[in-house]
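# step 3/5: fold
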Amino acid sequence: MPVAPVLRGAKAGLPRRAGIRACGCMRWLRCASTVAAAPPSRDRVAYALEQLGPLFQPTSPWTQRVQTAARALHTKENDELRRIAIVGAPHGFVDTILADPLDERVSNLLAAYPRHAHTRIQHGQGGWTTGGEWTLPLSWLRGIELFECAPEAVEDDATLTQLLACDAVFLVVRASDLAHQDTNAASSVMGLARRLATKPHTRLLVDCDVDAAYGQHAAAQWAKSAELVRTHIDPHLLERLARHSSSDDVRGAHLVSHTLAQHAQAVLCENGLPEYARILRASRFAALYTQFQSAVGDPQARAEHVALSAFHAATDAECVEGERLATGAGWARVLEADVAHDMANVQRRLAPPCDADMDKSPAVSQRRGDRSTKPHGAQADARHLVQDTLRTQFPWWRLLWRIDELRLALSYAVGRSFGSRDEILLTYEAGRLRGAASEQYARALHTLDEIRASDRRHCLEPDRRACADQPSLDSATLRNALASYDDRYMGALLHAHCLSGPLLERRAQLLSPSGTIHTLVTRAQRAVATTFGALGLSYATFAVGMLAHGSPNTPLPTAHVPTAAPPTSTMSEALATVSWLPDLTPVLSWTSMLAMTPTTAGASALLATMACAYYLQGRWTRAKRAFWWDWDRTVEMAEREQKTCIDTVLRTQVYGAPLQVAHALREQIEARQPQHEARLQILREVRSHLADE
């Protein structure tokens, strides 16, 4: 048996080596029959059939063929009829073979012979048997079961199943149909001949248009038909068929003439039996009866051929499965690589890397709290605007009269600059991503279409399909899951703010009543209030001290010590002459401890003012440092959430369709690769038994 061709590499841009590697490990499986030097034993064939059975689906015709061949091995040869099949012949051709002009009963039975696609004919008294066979009283049918397959049933799986159980197969094709290979009958019969060429006792009958029994005209017609056969039939196929049958004209084919055989029956009544026999021999139909009788029932040979055919069918399926898995893995790698490249470009466009700040002297500003502690980062425009606002409009000494404007100024700066440019860019890019999502969805569908188009399972012969666990990677479940990425569903998810959501949330957090700006304003207001309170208290104390210094010193009265007359001063006299003032003598007597000269009071007030200024400046600096720390943390979280949001939107919505296809392909490949390896191991064991190693 010649070696079947090796499958070529996968398509769709994948390297040719991928397909060669996928089926290179199975190349040696294809030449199992050429390795065997002798036919394997019955036990080896039975073991091979037992191992090959689970490789096919229960509904596969190969399951029934393998089971039938296994049962035939345990059946005694004497209990079986020799099964002979005539395939593709017109009903008149079969009637000519079954005709017996000397027996009127046969002629009457043939006139009432029912026409079916598949009919089994045996020797008997005539009519149907309980087993469904048609019987005819023909002596040469003893021990023979003739199986007739009509031309319209040649391509059925049941036909091949019946033929594999036959001991001899005669394939009939008209010579005139060979010149037109598009004829369905000729194409079907020749396709069946290629599949059964290695089966023992398979013969090709070519019905030639010869109308002369003898003479140069007849010889020319036979020669023309023989040349037609050599021209339109593959020489390799003829060589394979020649091992079972041959003729003088064409090696590998037996030429007959149905026209001459019918002419012989027509001249029987007029010219007698000798002329009938002479024309029948010239039509070469008489040799068919000899070939029918020479057919030998050999269940082991049939089982061996079924095992080899099933082995090659499973090997072809595994070659296709290996190439299918390699193609699927290649498509998954291509999709993932393309998606990673496109996503990197989109991410660089949506979130470009931040440049380092060009300010070379940030240390003093950071200590003062005038700027962020981060030398670079996102939201640089907003950071610079807030820094300028705090530095130019709200130095510490202006807080005393501009504290009420601080909240409004910071809210305006943050609302105007924080994420405003990014929001516009992301809103625009969200609209572009919707179109990109539609393109990626179409690309995923195109990938599945390419996988289905490159699926070699559709290129297998019909009798070699339906192998176990080898469906296409392009499944209906995958397409149903992919339908969720259609624009009708993605349009609602890819709205205008699908990318800028984290920025809007963090901006709202900064401007919220309990946010960072509110905290800074609250601390500034508390520091200003404390400063004003301290200054007021200090100034009041110093004023009282000045008053105490200018008022008379009236000691507390005692019972035993006589008091001297208090000294008088200009200020005390002035206070004493004012009638509308109450008597401050008791109070002034207690404030004598705070008495200070005006010079001392002025100096103390100046020191108190400096202390309050230092306090206000320190509190304002600490408040700004806390503000910038909260700002940096908010910006970092916004930047991190923004990158996460962009990556999530790209992976789950924009590029979700190709990633879903790649993930599904990898899951199927990972699940089917061990099964593929297990079937290959079974095929190796079957090969070793069929090769009788």
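# step 4/5: annotate
The two ends are 17 Å apart (CA to CA).
# step 5/5: archive (pending)
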